[in-house]
């Protein structure tokens, strides 16, 4: 036990991140822009990016200029793309971070071109209905095409697949729409890209010129691809007590013992990012066994039913990354692996292995 492992923590295998990136890259056959937004899905943008330097990616994807600036201050010199739509008033923030913006409207494009000749990417909405130029708005695409025709910074055009993991027909339609939108612009830039983690499961079909893996890097299943586990969430047992038949556990007494058993308290809760929806639904690894979470998950603790197995204070439980996978625990919580990772709280130390 060390000060950082006295309560709860996350073990992060950086070698697994790199392995997952290499495997993904081998499938799509094009340079990668690993997504390290949201602090690399909660695992640490700077350590992850430094580890990924070993595979020489094209660059990195973030969502805010602040995230880009953090990478620059850490010595990352490759291209960084801010993937959230550029607001005209934010042009200087993106420029100051030495980043490329994602541009999804004519006003933002005009503001960027008026300020700089630096690289930028144009986003096309092919069905996500979130950001970007509508793929079938011919008038808007023509106007944007006129604006970028002689723009030296026009580096890329991209879209985002909404269902690549579950709907091959919709994915093919989105790809076709992207090609039609690029043609309508009248100029093809050096990079046309669409493939996210799930998009990589189609091999080179939607690789384009650049691919943007995200959750696959961090051990989450996507489109049938099974990456190496990366993050392991652990917590100490801080209390053990026998519970009599009929006794209740945690707030509002939502769980009642059906017989004599042992309840162990783990030093982790929703204040650390464990979803409260795991109350009476989740499971954890304790020793070599799986035990259920019982009662409501509280801010700083949760309880498990250890049954008759031997357990004592100081033992280590694994919430995901062991016998319980990230995606399995996410299923118990009624959510996805992305949310479990990005919810990991700041008071959980991250311990890094590999990546040298």
Question: Would you give an account of this structure?
Answer:
The chain has helices spanning 14-28, 37-41, 45-52, 65-73, 91-96, 106-115, 138-148, 168-185, 326-333, 337-342, and strands at residues 8-13, 60-62, 80-85, 100-103, 120-125, 133-134, 154-158, 191-193, 231-243, 248-249, 255-256, 261-266, 283-286, 289-294, 302-305, 316-320, 350-353. It is of the alpha/beta class.
Count of helix runs: 10
Structural class: alpha/beta
Unreliable stretches (pLDDT < 50, length at least 5) are: none
Radius of gyration: 23 Å
Structural shape: elongated
State the helicity in percent bands: 25-40%
Beta-strand residue fraction: 15-25%
How far the N terminus sits from the C terminus, by CA atoms, comes to 24 Å
Mean pLDDT over all positions: 97
* Total number of strands: 17
Outline the biggest β-sheet: 7 strands, parallel
SSE string: EHHHEHEHEHEEHEHEEEEEEEEEHHE
């Amino acid at each position: 036990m060390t000060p950082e492992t006295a309560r709860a923590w996350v073990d992060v295998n950086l070698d697994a991140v790199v392995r997952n990136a290499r495997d993904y890259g081998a499938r799509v056959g094009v340079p990668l822009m690993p997504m390290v937004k949201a602090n690399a899905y909660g695992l640490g943008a700077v350590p992850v990016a430094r580890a990924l330097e070993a595979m020489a990616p094209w660059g990195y994807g973030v969502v805010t200029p602040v995230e880009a600036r953090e990478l620059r201050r850490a010595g990352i010199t490759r291209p960084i793309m801010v993937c959230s739509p550029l607001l005209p008033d934010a042009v200087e923030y993106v420029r100051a971070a030495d980043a490329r913006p994602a541009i999804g409207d004519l006003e933002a494009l005009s503001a960027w071109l008026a300020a700089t000749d630096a690289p930028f990417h144009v986003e096309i909405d092919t069905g996500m209905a979130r950001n970007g130029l509508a793929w079938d708005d011919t008038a808007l695409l023509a106007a944007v095409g006129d604006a970028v025709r002689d723009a030296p910074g026009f580096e890329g055009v991209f879209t985002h697949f909404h269902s690549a993991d579950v709907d091959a027909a919709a994915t093919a339609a989105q790809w076709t729409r992207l090609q039609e939108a690029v043609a309508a612009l009248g100029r093809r830039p050096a990079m046309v890209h669409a493939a996210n983690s799930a998009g990589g499961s189609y091999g080179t079909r939607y690789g384009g010129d650049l691919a943007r893996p995200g959750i696959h890097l961090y051990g989450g299943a996507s489109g049938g691809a099974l990456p190496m586990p990366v993050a392991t969430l652990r917590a100490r047992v801080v209390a053990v007590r026998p519970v009599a038949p009929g006794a209740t556990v945690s707030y509002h007494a939502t769980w009642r013992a059906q017989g004599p058993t042992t309840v162990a308290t783990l030093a982790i809760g929703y204040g650390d990012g464990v979803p409260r929806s795991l109350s009476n639904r989740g499971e954890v690894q304790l020793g070599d066994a799986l035990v259920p979470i019982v009662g409501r998950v509280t801010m700083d603790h949760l309880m498990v039913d250890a049954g008759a197995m031997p357990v004592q204070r100081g033992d280590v439980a694994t919430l995901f990354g062991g016998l319980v996978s990230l995606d399995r625990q996410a299923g118990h919580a009624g959510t996805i692996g992305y949310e479990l990772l990005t919810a990991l709280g700041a008071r959980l130390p991250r311990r890094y292995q590999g990546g040298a």
